[in-house]
Amino acid sequence: MMSTVLSAAGLPLEVIAIIAGVDRLTDTFRTSLNVVGVLANAAILESRERRNESESR
């Protein structure tokens, strides 16, 4: 979809290929960052649940 928009903007195919390659790298970085955030939230919630369970006993 991005290549269609960039082609319509009049960019040469070589430029579109470079942009697509860079976009792939940044997309991978964003995905990795999201996974790390989800894992961090899960770890925080688990530690709080354990602390609450131990306090209620």
UniProtKB/TrEMBL annotation:
Membrane topology, from the record: Multi-pass membrane protein
Q: Which UniProt keywords apply?
A: Membrane, Transmembrane, Transmembrane helix, Transport
Instruction: Please verify whether the record's keywords include Transmembrane.
Output: yes
Q: Which Gene3D superfamilies match?
A: Sodium:dicarboxylate symporter
Is the keyword Transmembrane helix in the record? yes
Q: Which domain of life is it from?
A: Bacteria
Q: Name one GO cellular component term.
A: membrane
Alphabetized GO MF terms:
symporter activity
Location of this chain's protein in the cell: Membrane
Specify the protein name.
Sodium:dicarboxylate symporter family protein
What lineage is on file? Bacteria, Bacillati, Bacillota, Bacilli, Bacillales
